[in-house]
Amino acid sequence: YYTWMFGSDIIRIKVKGYLRNITDNEIFEFEERGIKNKDKITFNNNDIKYSIRCNDNEIMMIRDGNDFVNTFIFNNNNSKSNYLLKENGYDMDMEVNVSNMEFNDKLIYIEYEIVSTSCKYEFKIEMSEMLWV
After folding, report:
1. Confidence (pTM)
2. How distant, in Å, are the alpha carbons of 23, 52, 85, 89, 93 from that of 46?
């Protein structure tokens, strides 16, 4: 309520969601504490740092693990992904088709397909403000 007085745009949030591989019928659920700073959300899960940035019609998600960096650009036109293996510097670009995408202050929801593998995924996170003293 009074955070604006101190000039801070950083909000502690609870991030709850899942990544579902529709093709292989696998689901990975998570619930973490995160930080929201203007248009950027960051949280950690299983030694992977997630950074998600939303603007008018695009979502950028970076998954940074110990041995890889996986970057996604989701939009309605030409979505794409890049997977980089840190150890040998090998990276691969992948075309992504987004079939459904919505986001606001409380929700990010994306249905997409990795074109080269024909694997379909559903990614959803819900965010709520955390108040702790």
Report:
1. 0.85
2. 23, 17, 17, 22, 24
